[in-house]
């Protein structure tokens, strides 16, 4: 009777190298379960994102390429869905009011976005300066307007723009000024004032969060080198919070093209805001006043593409400057 020898795992047997044994089934099932844990957290978000965001966009794109033809005076003889190609887009861009609304919000964004982000940047730098007192209180105070719903804010500011009710106009009259805040040339900038008032605090918090990631050693080195507050802000803070500035700019560009609630509410205070004052209002009017859902879908897609082009165009310019550096 011959004796058999056992070698330890990983050692070579007298007959040659021994292959590693496979992992037990229980260990493999545990590894699979651990791999599925992240998907359990992300899954609900992906499901809601697909249901509430992706599918509506795809459905709007589908609606923009079809037309519903009705037969009979009131469609009593039936209807059919036909492929319309780019006909809905041609009709949408053929509406002068819709094209004017796009130009109007682009002018709005070219002025309002730099002003709003500039003020948000100044507030963020002041709150994060070494001499700032009660920064938490002032952060909450500046952020408070963002908590006011856009409809409520528009109503409040609407009454402040009406002559006879507005203390702003009363004070301006005392110094000989008579601004027409709801006139044809002033109503757009009255809307810009509402948006700026609401979103300065929101953008300020994003910038403050980025400023807090700057190591304190950099500030200490700047003080040792004799840098003042302006030099510290220009040479240290602004370069390091550039990602936050890019992010807030993109958010503001997209928000500008989505302008809807504020002019819709102010339309009750003035005749200088029509039903197609902004692109979203024009699409809303096409869908629910003219009952032309396909043209409204085409207008929505045009607005989305405009936001996409502007946002990625801005990113391309920023990345191009980084590559040059």
TrEMBL record:
Residues 102-314 form the ABC transmembrane type-1 domain. One of its GO terms (cellular component) is plasma membrane. The keyword Disulfide bond does not apply. Residues 1-29 are annotated as: Disordered. Its main location: membrane. GO terms for biological process: transmembrane transport. It is a multi-pass membrane protein. The keyword Cell membrane applies. PROSITE patterns: ABC_TM1. The chain crosses the membrane at residues 36-62, 105-127, 139-160, 187-209, 240-261, 296-318. SUPFAM superfamilies: MetI-like (SSF161098). It is found in: Cell membrane. Keywords: Cell membrane, Membrane, Transmembrane, Transmembrane helix, Transport. Belongs to the binding-protein-dependent transport system permease family. This is ABC transporter permease. It comes from Nocardiopsis sinuspersici.
């Amino acid at each position: 009777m011959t004796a058999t020898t056992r070698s330890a795992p990983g050692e070579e047997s007298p007959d040659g190298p021994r292959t590693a044994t496979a992992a037990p089934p229980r260990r493999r099932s545990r590894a699979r379960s651990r791999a599925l844990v992240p998907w359990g957290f992300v899954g609900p978000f992906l499901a809601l994102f697909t249901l509430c965001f992706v599918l509506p966009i795809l459905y709007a794109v589908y609606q923009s390429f079809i037309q519903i033809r009705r037969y009979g005076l009131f469609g009593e003889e039936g209807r059919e869905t036909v492929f319309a190609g780019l006909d809905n887009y041609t009709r949408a861009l053929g509406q002068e009011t819709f094209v004017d609304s796009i130009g109007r919000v682009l002018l709005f964004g070219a002025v309002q976005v730099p002003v709003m982000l500039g003020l948000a940047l100044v507030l963020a730098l002041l709150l994060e300066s070494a001499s700032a007192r009660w920064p938490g209180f002032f952060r909450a105070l500046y952020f408070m307007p963002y908590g006011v719903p856009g409809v409520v804010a528009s109503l409040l500011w609407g009454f402040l723009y009406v002559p006879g009710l507005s203390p702003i106009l009363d004070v301006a009259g005392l110094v000989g000024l008579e601004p027409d805040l709801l006139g044809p040339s002033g109503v757009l900038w009255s809307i810009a004032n509402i948006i700026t008032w609401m979103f300065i605090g929101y953008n300020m918090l994003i910038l403050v969060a980025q400023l807090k990631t700057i190591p304190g050693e950099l500030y200490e080195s700047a003080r040792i080198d004799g840098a003042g507050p302006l030099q510290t802000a220009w040479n240290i803070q602004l370069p390091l919070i550039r990602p936050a500035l890019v992010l807030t700019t993109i958010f503001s560009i997209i928000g500008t093209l989505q302008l809807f609630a504020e002019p819709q509410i102010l339309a009750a205070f003035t005749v200088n805001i029509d039903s197609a004052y902004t692109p979203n209002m024009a699409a809303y009017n096409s869908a629910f006043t003219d009952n032309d859902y396909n043209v409204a879908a085409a207008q929505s897609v045009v607005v989305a593409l405009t936001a996409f082009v502007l946002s990625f165009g801005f990113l391309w310019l920023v990345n191009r400057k980084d590559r040059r550096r």
